[in-house]
């Protein structure tokens, strides 16, 4: 039986691949045979991820870009095509958070968070999604959402709103791209010790999160790799589109 999770010959573009969670998923995809394009502004971290991908047996290349800039994204697509000749998987995982109380929120902060968390996803889906649709060979787009998208999480109003919108965009594009065999799904991570959420994890906050997580622990970044590889592989998830895949230790199943 063919390996359901073999990504040999595929190219995966990971926007925000230099982040903690994006980097872990990059290693997972590379370890299953994909050529991995790591996209981000911090090239020092990108090269650390590239070395980890190569240590897992994959190939990686780093690309510098502002995820909110359409021109940068188009340039990255062109550079990736010059590198491997194809793009089969797009993963969108840039993230920006804030704990500003609602009545103190200024629209410049709202715009900054929405730009990184939502605008970047829409732009990348336009640039890379158009390539996949027009190529006619299918593809997989994986958006990284959050447990705060449904229901919203207290103290992170703008972040929650942006991730709820990512869920909506995911479902909309799943419907739009399905005739071209381009699948669009989202992963909903629970709480992982990533850099962007450390500042909101006070002892009281940690206690509240763990009480609401049936597995009673934080996730490890590597625990996202299986979901990423599954959604990237057409053999494994060829009939899966418009789904929101939870990797959250049961957080989303918890009521009281």
Structure characterization notes:
The chain is an alpha/beta fold and 256 residues long. The chain has a single domain (11-251), classed as Rossmann fold (3-Layer(aba) Sandwich). Helix content is 45%, strand content 15%. It has 9 helices and 7 strands, in the order E-H-E-H-E-H-E-H-E-H-E-H-H-H-H-E. It has helices at residues 20-31, 43-55, 70-84, 107-135, 157-177, 195-198, 203-211, 225-232, 234-237, and strands spanning 11-15, 35-40, 59-64, 89-92, 139-144, 182-189, 244-247. Helix 1 runs parallel beside helix 2 (43-55). The chain is globular and about 50 Å long. This is SDR family oxidoreductase. Keywords: Oxidoreductase. Belongs to the short-chain dehydrogenases/reductases (SDR) family. GO terms for molecular function: oxidoreductase activity, acting on the CH-OH group of donors, NAD or NADP as acceptor.
Please give the structural blueprint.
Blueprint (H helix, E strand, L loop, with lengths): L10 E5 L4 H12 L3 E6 L2 H13 L3 E6 L5 H15 L4 E4 L14 H29 L3 E6 L12 H21 L4 E8 L5 H4 L4 H9 L13 H8 L1 H4 L6 E4 L9
Parallel strand pairs: 1-2, 1-4, 2-3, 4-5, 5-6, 6-7
């Amino acid at each position: 039986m063919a390996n359901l999770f073999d990504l040999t010959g595929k190219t995966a573009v990971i926007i925000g691949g230099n982040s903690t969670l994006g980097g872990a998923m990059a290693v997972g995809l590379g370890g299953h045979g994909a050529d991995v394009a790591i996209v981000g502004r911090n090239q020092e971290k990108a090269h650390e991820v590239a070395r980890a991908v190569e240590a897992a047996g994959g190939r990686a290349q780093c690309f510098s870009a502002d995820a909110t800039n359409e021109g940068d994204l188009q340039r990255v697509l062109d550079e990736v095509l010059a590198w491997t000749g194809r793009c089969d998987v797009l993963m969108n995982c840039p993230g920006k958070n804030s704990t500003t109380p609602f009545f103190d929120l200024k629209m410049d902060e709202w715009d900054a968070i929405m730009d990184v968390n939502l605008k970047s996803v829409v732009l990348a889906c336009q640039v890379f999604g158009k390539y996949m649709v027009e190529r006619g060979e299918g593809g997989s787009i994986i958006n990284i959402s959050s447990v705060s998208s449904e229901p919203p999480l207290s103290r992170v109003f703008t972040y929650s709103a942006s991730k709820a919108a990512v869920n909506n965009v995911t479902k909309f594009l799943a419907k739009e791209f399905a005739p071209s065999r381009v699948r669009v799904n989202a992963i909903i991570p629970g709480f992982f010790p990533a850099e962007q959420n450390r500042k909101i994890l006070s002892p009281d906050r940690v206690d509240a999160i763990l009480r609401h997580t049936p597995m009673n622990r934080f996730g490890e970044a590597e625990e996202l790799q299986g979901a990423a590889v599954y959604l990237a592989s057409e053999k494994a998830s060829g009939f899966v589109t418009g789904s929101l895949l939870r990797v959250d230790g049961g957080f989303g199943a918890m009521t009281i």
